[in-house]
């Protein structure tokens, strides 16, 4: 029966039911009507099973993927399972042998800001920062229009002086001929003594004039040399070999050897540093200066590269103290140096007690790896570095070996992972660029 008909009918039955005796059983027709209003709960509801099926499939796929990843084959297609180790940074040798520790800076004994000899406008700059230059190399050019014009003028003046000199030389020859002729006539008393003296003085006058013109020609040559030098000064060249660390001028700017024109005039083209002249300056407390002596072995460690040490020695102690800081300056010379040492770098300096300890501290400490991680090929040592699950063959320079570890002085950095337990079969299977996975 539809619900719209059952409800009114049920309402109409409320009065008879209310009047009936509650102890009496309802009539059969009323029981039938009430049975139609019941909800059948004999069968459970049937919810939609489609979302549950999708959830079960996704969970099953995720589980299968995790199992496949967790139990992946050690040696799959193109992937090898290898044992690895991490390169460990070694402490500098002889760290406990220093008698005095101090801090300082790397300085250049040969450093120059290259400028011009004359004031001029920059027309071309041929260098950039970081460029290696040779002694005498052209760095920049200045406007040379005026010096070049003055050079041509000096050349013309020299040419005029030389032509005047030729003219006077001819006059001297004529005067000498006149004198010789007068002397011949004077022997026959055909010329007076006054005419003879006049001819002699004429020769001397022309000779004196010739000497003066020769000297003027020399002056003109020197003036020409000066103008040539001024023209050459328009080309600025490197005074010594070194590295450009600063570029101070650009084309179109004015440059002067002295400060002039306010902030619109540059006083230099660039700054060059001779890297071979690098050394260390250390301020030592005057209370401990007695521990420092000339040629004392020193270990220098750059703040930027604390894992490496450089061998050095004391050059000299500056014979003057800094009153405000109560320190004495000490100069230290590098015995070994590489491209990482740069001017104005901060350093830590350890003054060693004896020269015998210097060789131990001289070599860089490098890193340590297991001996089983080092292989050799044609007298060249190398390791297999693992990066991004790829093998990279890298040549190295070995140092000492101790307690099953090999010291790598060059070619490997701390924290890099290398393949261990190398053997002939493993080396044959691991080509450069091969994919690997590691278990440790």
Q: How would you characterize the overall build of this protein?
A:
The chain has about 450 residues and is of the alpha+beta class. The chain has five domains: about 5-35, no CATH class; about 80-90 and about 365-440, conserved putative lor/sdh protein from methanococcus maripaludis s2 fold, CATH 2.40.420.20; about 100-110 and about 275-360, Elongation Factor Tu (Ef-tu), domain 3 (Beta Barrel), CATH 2.40.30; about 110-145 and about 235-275, RNA polymerase II/Efflux pump adaptor protein, barrel-sandwich hybrid domain (OB fold (Dihydrolipoamide Acetyltransferase, E2P), Beta Barrel), CATH 2.40.50.100; about 145-230. It has eight helices and 26 strands. Strands 4-14-17-16-15-18 form a six-stranded antiparallel beta barrel. Strands 2, 20, 21, 22 and 25 form a five-stranded antiparallel beta sheet that branches. Strand 21 (about 380-385) and strand 22 form a beta hairpin. The two termini are about 75 Å apart. The model is unreliable at about 1-25, about 75 and about 355-365 (pLDDT under 50).
